[in-house]
Amino acid sequence: MYIVEALREAIREEMRRDETVFCIGEDIGIEGGFGGAFTVTLDLWKEFGHERILDTPISELGLTGVAVGAALMGMRPIADVQYCDFLFCAMDQLVNEAAKMRYMSGGKLKVPMVMRAPVGATTRGAQHAQSVESYFVHVPGLKVACPSTAYDAKGLLKTAIRDDNPVLFFEHKLLYGSRGVRKEKGGLDVQGEVPDEEYLIPFGVADVKREGKDVTVIATLKMVYEAMAAAEILNKEGISIEVIDPRTLVPLDKEAILKSVQKTGKLVIAHEDNLTGGWGGEIAAIVADEGFNYLDAPIKRVCAPDTPVPFAPVMEKFYVPDAEDIIKAIREIVK
Amino acid sequence: MAIPKEKLVWMYEKMVEIRKFEERIHYLFLQGQMPGTIHLYPGQEAVATGVCANLNKDDVIASTHRPHGHALAKGVSLRSAMAELFAKTTGCCKAKGGSMHMGDMDVGAIPAIAIVGGGIPVATGAALAFKMKRTKQVAVSFFGDGAANEGAFHEALNMGAIWSLPIVYVCENNLYGASTHVSKVMKIKDIAIRASSYGMEGKVVDGNDVISVYEAVHEAVSKARDGKGPTLVECKTYRRGGHSRTDGNIYRDKEEEKEWLAKDPIPRMKEYLIGKGILTEAQGKEIEEKKEMEIDDAVEFAKSSPSPKPEDALEDVFA
Fold first, then answer.
1. CA of B111, closest CA in chain A: separation in Å?
2. Which chain B residues are closer than 8 Å to A70 by Cβ?
């Protein structure tokens, strides 16, 4: 199953299970349309109708606030934006309202909403290319999920929908596996096994995507595949890489990370977001504090440079971190 | 329309309650007995009251940084409101919110949203939930003239209109966004005409006449409840006090001030009720004394309530 299908299945199952769950976004239910920008909600309107697959005007701030209000009244909206870059239009509602209503009410309210958004550079230009997880990792009151496989996507999305808190749910454009007219050039083929029986993946549980003993690499989304490719190459040289996918950045499975660093003594963190202020720094700080004695080498971060995403494919390739960059970082700390 | 006597008296009492509450808070605040900030409501009581007199307990309101009047009109108790301002755990938000987030969902008052315009999409979402759940509940979004220039206002009203949501948008035009007069920031005189941009009905109401507010909103609420969609009701009113605690209104035109302060909604309503033989002078006095006592009680309650433990700050982030 491709990730788009896994996500669609998660939405479908949760909407069948709980009538308070509904989708709200732009172009998500239009008959003959794409089913959202990347086909995740394709044809869901046929089963659930246009009230539960609710198309909005181009009003990201408004639709996010509407999701907050509906969630306060007991609905469970799955809102989405077509590109994560548009979340900035909605920042007030995500940061000042969704994240804080519970706290400001003294714990009496809850905001059980999901906001889905595609991330990643795809030669569309700087405003349709960002990775924005870090902005939301920083906000108390928001949870952040970022699955890299179909199995993780379905299990995490179901958990997100059932969570009584606002969840930012990030999906990578090049991992979707969308086909037909919405096929992404440069997309990875990451079909995976998804069980028929119902399953949920809890938040705060990292997944060891590859066991190893020499270096710990923390990676999310597309960087997981870059890390795995790097691991394959280095394995032939006798360097054993452990790849850990946190799957959720908030809550973060700190224990899994520390346990791995205790074993390997070396840490590399890889994300597609810009270096400065990226969540990689947060993990580095945690390990430098709580795992200081485990470290045999400086902590390395493999991230995009501090620039907007350029258009020209050669520049974008330079910008987006890849297996080569990970290998380079690992060589610096493995002597 | 024929408004039942009990309703008229209720509205008068509620306006007196709000006025006295705000006056007491102002005093306590200037005495240094209360932390935080305050944005007071005196002069605008007829809006909160005339609107909320039309609402059931399970209808909801979304309010602003100036929420005390709305909260009390919707049924938040004097005690829990006062305790919140005194930062006590018995406050409506367990001392986690403060003045600008006053509210209590038990009586349908969403803890207020202090970002100007921030509550308008939220109220719209509440109305969407009511429509989807097929309840007959109505949402009311309170906001000021300043908020009518926020993007959130436009996005929310547009969605309220296209989906025919059970919501009433109540704009309290008190002529000032903090210190800025509306004429500086809008070419139009009546915000209500913006309703037509969304294919929505807009009404202008004397916001200092609680009966006019009541009647206009009565129609809008019925329409919303019947599934016939939203209305934008613009209430023309005025702040008797400053924007917030230390504002001396130096920027306001003195003639304008004089004209508006003479249109105090409370003596106006009192005069009306006495004129109609619904209230006597003596009964009017009784109401004032009763409210003073209730507020004394609320202050006593707040002062003797426990303060939160500092570590309570770590709770209630996630459900």
1. 6
2. 125-126, 128-129, 132
User: Model confidence at A182, in pLDDT bands (50, 70, 90)?
Assistant: confident
Q: Classify residue B319: in a domain, yes or no.
A: no
Query: ipTM strictly over 0.95?
Result: yes
CATH number of the structural domain spanning residue B89: 3.40.50.970
The rounded distance, in Å, linking the Cα atoms of B97 and B112 is 9
Among chain B residues, the shortest Cα distance to A53 is held by B132
The answer as to whether B311 is a domain residue is no
A139–chain B nearest CA distance, Å: 11
Domain count within chain B: 1
Task: Please identify every residue of A annotated as catalytic.
Answer: 128
Digit-coded pLDDT (tens) for B85-111: 999 999 999 999 999 999 999 999 999
Tell me which amino acid residue B53 is.
A
Residue A13 reports pLDDT greater than 90: yes
Domain of B190, in residue numbers: 5-301
- A:B CB pairs within 8 Å: 149
Q: How far is CA B182 from the centre of its chain?
A: 20
Which of A92, A107, A141 shows the shortest C-beta gap to B115? Answer: A92
CATH class of segment(s) A3-182: alpha beta
pTM of the model: 0.97
In a domain, B128, yes or no: yes
Domain ranges of chain A: 3-182, 207-333
pLDDT digits (tens, 9 = 90+) for A288-323: 999 999 999 999 999 999 999 999 999 999 999 999
Q: Which residues of A touch B95 (CB under 8 A)?
A: 106
In terms of CATH architecture, what is A207-333? 3-Layer(aba) Sandwich (3.40)
Q: Do B133 and A74 lie within an 8 Å CB cutoff?
A: yes
For residue B144, CA distances in Å to A77, B25, B151, B158, B172 come to 28, 22, 14, 18, 5
Cα–Cα distances in Å, from A132 out to A37, A207, B111, B129, B200?
18, 21, 29, 29, 37
CB contact under 8 A, B115 and A71: no
Read off the pLDDT of residues B3-28 as tens digits, 9 standing for 90 and up. 999 999 999 999 999 999 999 999 99
